[in-house]
Amino acid sequence: MTRRVLLVEDEPGLARAVADNLREEGYEVEVLDRGDEVVGAVRREAPDLLILDVMLPGRSGFEVVRELRDAGERLPILLLTARGDVTDRVRGLELGADDYLPKPFAMAELLARARALLRRAESAPAAQQLVIGDVRFDFRALSASGGYGPPLTTHDLLVLKVLAERRGQVVSRLDIVEEVCGLQSDATLRTVDNHVMALRRALGDDPRRPRWLHTVRGEGYRLTVE
Fold first, then answer.
1. Distances 55 to 35, 78, 95 between C-alpha atoms, Å
2. Do 69 and 53 contact (CB within 8 A), yes or no?
3. What span, in angstroms and rounded, lies between the C-alpha atoms of 61 and 53?
4. pLDDT of residue 184
5. How far is residue 40 from each of residues 34, 51, 68, 111, measured CA to CA in Å?
6. pLDDT tens-digit profile of 111-161?
7. How far apart are the first and last CA of the chain?
8. Could you tell me the pTM of the whole model?
9. Would you list the domain boundaries of the chain?
10. What percent of the chain has a predicted confidence (pLDDT) above 70?
């Protein structure tokens, strides 16, 4: 089945380049250049993925994400944000975007993130809240309450979100890096280990006899929730 992508970008050259690359990958692509046309197009076309610039005429990408999520629309959303603007990235995730990609970006990374989001959506939808032991995680707000040790970072929570979406399955560290940080990031496989260590501290999970976060030597990590 051909996957349908709605691309919203008001820079004509960039929109054309992204759309052409998506079509070469086999996606059906509709392109819009205004934010105030997006909600109607989503309801009309029912795309499998929305790639959405933040700065748009008519309506900002943030406003679009908020309206879609408030209406219960769960399609994956990839936000295109200004490079280095951490505030925009965090705000977008808190409003309900699934991922962000700072400009300028490598086309290979955009395609990889699109594949990752669609792959994630194909699996059973994960709950937006998860309770493990004494800790309650809210993946929509990217927050955690309860637990032990220092507060968890946004990336700690995003690593757990990836594992929660494939709970019971072994997820490679490379897959985690790709989905959380992107191919062009400076993150390493060791970075994933550090995030898992932080999660184990918060949960009080003994790495020698783990109850929830299991290391599968040579392969990756698996989350087991009873």
1. 8, 14, 15
2. no
3. 6
4. 53
5. 11, 15, 10, 25
6. 999 998 888 777 645 557 788 988 989 887 788 988 888 899 988 999 999
7. 34
8. 0.60
9. 4-122, 129-223
10. 93
CATH class of 129-223: mainly alpha
For residue 91, give the nearest of 120, 66, 57, 116 by alpha carbon.
66
Least confident piece of the model among 39-43, 67-71, 165-169, 179-183: 179-183
Q: Residue 109 is encoded by which pair of tokens?
A: 């990374």
Q: Please count the CA atoms within 13 angstroms of the CA of 144 that sit on its side-chain side.
A: 27
List beta partners, residue 76: none
Supply the DSSP string of 59-114, one letter for each residue.
S-HHHHHHHHHHTT----EEEEEETT-HHHHHHHHHHT-SEEEEES--HHHHHHHH
Average pLDDT, the chain: 88
Q: How far apart are CA 102 and CA 45, in angstroms?
A: 26
The predicted structure's pLDDT at residue 88? 75
User: CB atoms < 10 A from the CB of 116, how many?
Assistant: 21
CATH 3.40.50.300 fits 4-122, yes or no: no
Contact yes or no for 171/222 (Cβ under 8 A):
yes
User: What Cα–Cα distance (Å) separates residue 204 from each residue in 125, 151, 155, 168?
Assistant: 27, 13, 19, 20
pLDDT beyond 50 at 191: yes
| pLDDT (0 to 100) of residue 109 | 92
Three-class secondary structure of residue 171 per DSSP = strand
